[in-house]
Amino acid sequence: MPLRIALLVLPSTELSFNGSSTHPLEVLQPELYRSGLLSFETNPFETATSNLLKKIKVDDFGDTSFEKQLHATVDAIENGQVVQLSTEQHSLLMMPALKAAQMRIHPHALLCAMQKGESGIEQTLAGALNQAKRDPATVSKLVTQDNLTSEQQFAAVYQLITELASRTTVRDEMNAGVELGPKQAKSHYWFTPNHQARVAAISFSTSLGNTSTSNLSSDQSCTSYILAQGTGFIAPKSIVNHQRLQFVLSADTQAGLLAALDGLNTQLTSNSQDLLTVMRNNLVAFEKSSAIYAITLQASSLPALLQELNVMAGMLPKVMSEKGQFKTPAGSYFTAEPLGTKQSSGLAFVYPGVGTVYGDMFSELHRYFPSLYSKLEREGDLKSMLQADAIYNVDAKIPPAMPLGDLAIAGVGSSYLLTQLLVNEFNITPNFALGYSMGEASMWASLGVWSNPHTLIEKTQHDPLFTRAISGPLTAVRKAWQLSHTDADIVWNSFVVRAEAESIEALLPEFPHAYLAIIQGDTCVIAGCETQCRALLTQLGKRGIAANRVTAMHTAPAMEEHANVVEFYTQPLQTALPTEIKFISAANLTDVDSHQAVNESGFLDSQLIATSIADTFCNTLNFTALIHSAQKQGAKLFVELGADRQNCTLIDKIVKLDHASETNTSATASVCTVPVNAKGGEDITTLLKALGQLISHRVPLSVQPLIDGLNREIALQQLHDANPRVASNTETHMSKPLLQGEV
To answer: Which residues pair with 297 in a beta bridge?
Structure first.
């Protein structure tokens, strides 16, 4: 029969605590604390049913091997006991899965099978899979280890449970002959096929004596275990900690801000409180503030924070007098002209187009927002949504070579994920939304307009619109150019060139198979027949940067597919549509006096949205005009929701050109761009810097996720301080072992 043993990773091998405040476990593992299974009056395991608890120690001395002690654990559990199985470094709480369910405890993992034999790993593993009633194809991770000590075996199992509970895949340095590069992520989210649970197998083999290479299996004792993910997961890592500090100071005047900076300086240098506690109390106080101005201070250590504080104090009068902004490389930020206030209503979400996704993007985010990833998994196929097989491929050459349809899916998926993060985790709602090219589709998919955007994933992968018409063999282009099936293949390319649109448009009649595809600040994108594009560049006297990607979007031949684009994007809408967001499209911006959102009249339907996308898709994209239109409608603070920060760079250039020319007073008004992600940067650090800017711009938001994380950090530190003997050994390289149930 399969085993059904619930496994909970404990935050320490000892849970005793001598403090007078709330026991740390109430914060670290609230489900376990509330269950009543453990009591903390004198001894953490003294309860009315303390006779049900059994402590078993695994070590490398005497007859206490991991395999034997685990058998003893299973026997105890079958007799109704709860067992704490531990070494000096790690600790597990084990109980019947039914008991965990009755006590509303979400286990980190389930032990489903345990088999021992001397016929080799393959047969022992087959026996374990048979006991667990699992098909080998459902096992998404297989670990084999030779000649480990008992404590090492326990640590390996503990690590695997932690990976299951944190939904994290740790990569091998070599995979199918491909070596992991030094800049590639060492771990990422553990993706599985839609609605398929994670199952892992781990096998240990121990030599029985002299081994022979011709008959290795007969000289080994093998033990195999089958583990499946539980309904709980490792609680979020704290966004802020000792290495990532953030303080927020707010006031209505310059004098008030300077006083707040001086007060924080005194508090930090007095050493009267733990740094984490000071930071937590600071954020709690800010959560209640409605002051006009806010300064965010960020640093990687206390000495660095004091430097940031002093620099900010020195710069503050100048920034206030100039109504400007000040930002440090560490992320500290202040603006004397907040653009995101509720009264200003200037917050705009900007969605990038195809091609911004990159290998290993967001590889760390899931450990900080596990409930978000769990929600996205329940809603749809997260693996397909992010095109995980390509994005997280060990071969770094795979992501840049993704087909157009796959790039489109991953682009929308990344925007969808980051939007849910800001909206659901930090309670941020934009006043405007707009997209660069196919970013318009991301906009409608991410902000609660389409009822089931996940259905577009499979359509995008297989619809001829993306596979043949405007990419691949370019059937739409062949039709527009009146080519027969016997004519040669089209050699298509696109080039980014630093030139004005007018100078390019003047030459287009000479090159009928070259097109002005995109206008974006001081650069343009031309696309079409590679030979004609290169000839146009030569006549223009400019050098172009080849994109080496085949897509006919935003060129005249794409108009051949206009009706198909409308049909493709005609999607059912949510019953209740967002009314507080103005959706801005790049379609129909030729009329400079017409600057209206798609839903300006308060009306939205599937046809209107699909036509808007198709018009953008099939015509030249004037991103400069789109930004100007958004500004005229009131957008001031542009937050990029997607992989990397390409749109922020373009908007900054557009604004810089506007200020230089001073031809459009509306367009030269105050503007700020905020990237939420940046290729080459640490995911969580970039996010924290973005939050710091939004806070200073007084965007209505919640810092509760930061406070909750600090509460866990403080509780864990208290537990470790109470048990200094084991404090240095309880942190794994994966994450702190805290329980968080699925919701």
So the answer is: 247
Query: In terms of Cα–Cα distance, which of 742, 622, 721, 739 is closest to 277?
Result: 721
Does one domain contain both 424 and 448?
yes
The pLDDT of residue 34 is: 87
724 versus 337: the higher-pLDDT residue is: 337
Q: What percent of the chain has pLDDT over 70?
A: 92
Number of domains in the chain: 4
- Predicted confidence (pLDDT) per residue in 484-503, tens digit: 989 999 999 999 999 999 99
Q: Are 565 and 554 in contact (CB under 8 A)?
A: no
Let me know if residue 51 belongs to a domain: no
Give per-residue pLDDT as tens, 233-263.
999 999 999 999 999 999 999 999 999 999 9
Give every strand in the sheet of 293-299, ordered side by side.
245-251, 293-299, 333-335, 325-327
Report the C-alpha gap between 415 and 445 in whole angstroms: 9
Cβ–Cβ under 8 Å, residues 697 and 335: yes
Residue 430 shares a structural domain with residue 523: no
Q: Which residues form the domain of 507?
A: 485-552
- Tell me, what amino acid is at 12? S
337: pLDDT confidence band, cut at 50, 70 and 90? very high
Residue 160 confidence (pLDDT)? 97
CA 343 to chain centre: 30
pLDDT score recorded for residue 40: 57
By the 10 Å C-beta count (0-12 exposed, 13-18 middle, 19+ buried), 340 is classed as buried
CATH number of the domain at 443, please. Answer: 3.40.366.10
Buried residues in 78-97 as b, exposed as e (16+ CB within 10 A) = eeebbbbbbbebbbbbbbbb
Kindly state whether residues 577 and 651 are assigned to the same domain.
yes
Question: Same domain, yes or no, for 221 and 370?
Answer: no
Residue 92 belongs to some domain of the structure: no
**724 within domain boundaries:** no
Q: Which residues pair with 95 in a beta bridge?
A: 6
| Statement to judge: residues 584 and 709 lie in one domain | no
